[in-house]
# Entry
Amino acid sequence: MQILKDDIRKRILDAAIRQFARKSYAKTSMREIAREAGIGVGNIYNYFPGKDELFREAVSPVLCALEAMLQEHHGIRGEDIMMMRSEKYLESCIDEYVSLMDRHRVLMEILLFHAQGSSLEHFRENYTDRSTEVVKVWFASMRQKHPEINTAVSDFIIHLHTVWMFTMFEELLMHSVPRQEMEAILYDYILFEIQGWRAIIRI
# Structure
């Protein structure tokens, strides 16, 4: 019976993703999701309390990926700042961004373009604000470890760093950039970003 329940839950999530991608959160009803999933509308509520909870669960893989990316670079698992000087760091960043777009392109599009009316409507702004605070703390810890570096960077510059990241994702999505071209674009973007930060913090 558990296998059957899991199957129904997956059918609901898959149907919700298709509907949110086509029509957006605000214009999608639970009845439409139920119809697409091939179940009664009342049955959906046995798995999800409401549309917002269903939406959050549907896009949770990309939310987790973005959170992991933040923590890996600047948060609880933040790398040493001197890693920015290595080719390995550049390659890992490119792989990370390409993987994010490859695995979660549809969910990223839903999150950035179709979340109006949901509790994630302001995700980009909230993530950017939180990222700014996380990077500031990371800079402070790096300054203790490496007193010679310059971490007197304004909050607004740190803020722009995340804004540009989301703008890049949005442009890649809006222009349906193919994978091979996307890799080249990401290489140039991340190289530009890393070299810019290295110049600012003087490493």
In short: The radius of gyration is 20 Å. The longest helix spans residues 87-113. The chain is about 75% helix and 0% strand.
